[in-house]
Amino acid sequence: MSDNWVVQNLQNALTTWNEKLAEVWKLLTMSPENFKGGSIWHVILTINGAMQAIGLALLVLFFLAGVVKTSANLSEIKRPEHALKLFLRFCIAKAVVTYGLELMMVLFQIVQGMISTIMKKSGIGSVNKTVLPKEMIQAIEDCGFFESIPLWAVTLIGSLFITVMSFIVILTVYGRFFRLYMYTAIAPIPLSTFAGQPTQSIGISFLKSYAAVCLEGAIIVLACIIFSLFAASPPAVDADAAPAAMVWKYVGELVFNMLVLVGAVKMSDHVVKEMMGL
């Protein structure tokens, strides 16, 4: 690494950015069971089991409420076709609550398969690293003390933006895992609403929202792939410009590309919700 403070500051910021993107790429292929060694997942499973007992109790309540609201009178319930319909609804709702966790994990695995396919077809094994061009490093190192003063200001601002954006990206991916855990923990409660026809829309909305959280991973992968292609063709360096202007232009274009990635990652949930009609 260069001994120049300006170069070191920029390289440290880019190192942080590259490390966070590499972690994002790894996390997107990871399942909730393996996240942080699986300790969080075991707690979530315990909570889900406790909620399942409550969900089964609510299932009966929602079923009776649905029967009362959808049946005009008691004689209608005695009709074989209507009784069979109610019986099938109750059995299906109970199966959804009992095996809801397995159903959600199958949905998650389907999306993970989609993410893996996107990664393989893109031909990108990992996100390309962003590095400072050698000609820029040389130009900065050739600057005298007074010429370096404006570079310090440009470097501080650019490094701050790069570091902040790297943490925004990784926190967004971590947030996706937290939402997956929360959906999994409380799943039996909203799934129990399938027992009643008037309340089934709550369960449908819950499953669509869970699917949207899973699909966010695919949108984030696409954003990382697009940024990786940008990183493979970094902004051009004007060798004839003054060092301060050179660094300002390069860092500005680099920060803009990073802002595009951060914006795409942050908007991934909105994009998926629009696709899902939520």
What does this structure look like?
With 278 residues, the chain is mostly helical. The protein has one domain (5-273). Helix content is 80%, strand content 0%. It contains eleven helices and no strands. Helix 5 (100-122) packs parallel to helix 9 (200-232) and helix 7 (145-186) packs parallel to helix 10. The mean pLDDT is 81.
| C-alpha geometry | elongated
Mean of residue pLDDT?
81
Order of helices and strands: HHHHHHHHHHH
Domain tally: 1
Per DSSP, what share of the residues sits in E-state strands of 2 or more residues? under 5%
Low-confidence regions:
none
Main beta sheet: none
Category from helices, strands and their pairing: mainly alpha
**Distinct helical segment count:** 11
Helix content: over 70%
Radius of gyration: 26 Å
- Give me the count of strands: 0
- What is the straight-line distance between the termini? 49 Å
